[in-house]
Amino acid sequence: MMAVLIILVYIVRLLSLQIFSDYYKSSADSNAFFRKVQYPARGLIYDRDSTLMVYNESAYNLMVIMEEQRGIDTLDFCNTIGISKDEYIRRMDKIKDRKLNPGYSRYTPQLFYAQITPEQFAVLQEKLYKFHGFYPEQRTVRRYSTTVGAHVLGDVGEVNQVDIDSDAYYRQGDFIGKLGIENSYEKDLRGKKGVQILLRDVNGRIKGAYQNGQYDQPAVPGSNLYLGIDNKLQALGERLLHGKIGTIVAIEPSTGEVLCLVSSPSYDPHLLIGSDRGKNYSKLASDPYKPLYNRAIMGQYPPGSTFKTSQGLTFLQEGVITPTTAYPCHGGYVNAGLRVGCHGHASPTQLRFAIQTSCNGYFCWGFFNMISKRRYGSYEKAFTIWKDYMVSMGFGYRLGIDLPGEKRGFIPNAEYYDKWYGNGGWSGQTIISDAIGQGEVLLTPLQIANLGATIANRGYYYTPHVVKSVEGRTLDSTFTTRHYTMVDKRYYDLVVEGMRAAVTGGTCRAGAIPGIEVCGKTGTAQNHGRDHSIFMGFAPMNEPKIAVSVYVENGGFGATYGVPIGSLIMEQYINGKLSPASEAKAEIFAAKTINYGSGTR
Length: 601
Known about the structure:
Blueprint: H1 2-20, H2 23-32, E1 33-38, E2 45-46, E3 52-64, H3 74-81, H4 85-96, E4 110-116, H5 118-127, E5 134-144, H6 150-153, E6 156-158, H7 161-166, E7 175-177, H8 180-184, H9 186-189, E8 194-200, E9 206-209, E10 225-227, H10 231-240, E11 246-251, E12 258-264, H11 277-286, H12 295-298, H13 308-317, E13 332-335, E14 338-341, H14 351-357, H15 360-370, H16 373-376, H17 379-392, H18 414-421, H19 445-456, E15 460-462, E16 467-470, E17 482-484, H20 489-505, E18 519-525, E19 532-539, E20 546-552, H21 562-575, H22 580-591
Parallel strand pairs: 2-10
Antiparallel strand pairs: 1-8, 2-3, 3-4, 3-5, 6-7, 8-9, 10-16, 11-12, 11-20, 13-14, 15-17, 18-19, 19-20
Helix pairs in contact: 10-21, 13-15, 14-20
């Protein structure tokens, strides 16, 4: 009986192996066939005028299959590709280290050397037949036709284990977008891998294509991207901020397309390609001035007096003021023993003149009267209504730009002040600095530029985006939908008048451009050191083509750096070039530097 049972078990196992299981067939196939991955060309990147900014260049990875790597002259191999024997051993040990390479298998291709140069490949190709188990894998590397726009363009680097685990598309040695739009549009840019099926003989040598390539799958190239970025405008912005810490953001109000996005200091994108990428990245990451940090979308700053425009709009809509409401300013806001200083100008002031002269007193009084118990029943309710207006204008939350790492800024709520002062322990007087873009209020430079675009549009904005179009598909509707604020269009017209007056005879006089109706608002944000210099504006007044924010850390008054730099950016974009006088001014600002000591935030 036992013998019969054993025979039955063997019969069942044989049937399983020979009829139902494909294990041995798969094993035989793996010996007979070599499936060579075909990598697609990564999508190209163009600026708004179809100027090529990022392209591809052929390169090779040197792969090794450990099971086939035998009988080679190690010294000859090392001399051929230009590495030492110690380096050869280190690379082999790294491949076999399952902690560093969890997907290791002796039977699958492993990356030995990434992106060997064309010169190395030419020498290697002649002797490759001697180095069993090694073979080249054709790839491409990114190249740049420009040295600007690093924070927008981003870079491509080798995948890590997290990338591999989170997306089955990737395997060890693949490349992925790490920063900028290379990261946020990775799935569009990367394309689709193909496969070439090759026949191998009993010794594992490649004998040719299987069935004349009938079952090969060609790689599908990645989609090209067309940006809203103006390459010349970006270059001018980076030149103007040379030697300074700060940002310039320009938006086309009618579309939300970002025309330039400058974060200074920046870096040459060529530093993050090729075999020196890791070394250069480490240097940039350890730089105390943080060139990798995209201040335009990650920096969270007090907006200063640019914020006053949002306050005037809110006060008008809520009926706190009318266009003719006048508030006193005797050297500033003076109330119940509290004084918020202001520069000298006529008093009392109405809204248009308050924007023109950037009057602190006017907006403090408006804020004080809005955050009152009499108007809404409690300070908490009044402040919640105020906060809702700020959120509708794009503050306090991420706008949703198509770049990784955007910060939300900060708009406090009633609960925040209850926590700090206790329930009932605060009022409009306590938090009066919020009225003038100081206190706890923080915006990103992108949000300040978007405020300019919203005013230019008289009450709505599009989510800012750096990519204008993607080849082969429509742009996400997120970027083509209007976002309306809680303020009526008619009140925006009043604020626009004040911003125009600031350029014709107020704090933004240095921003005037012959033949162009510029609207602007200065900002000077208090800081532990020297004040920050800020500008927000747009032009032309009635058919706006560009909205701009400029933020120069420790630059002093808004009129010192912010206004003239913003004016040059607008002139370059609208006219397509700078006048000789403006070019001379640009040279002066490009040569100016600000001493920040040994490092910064």
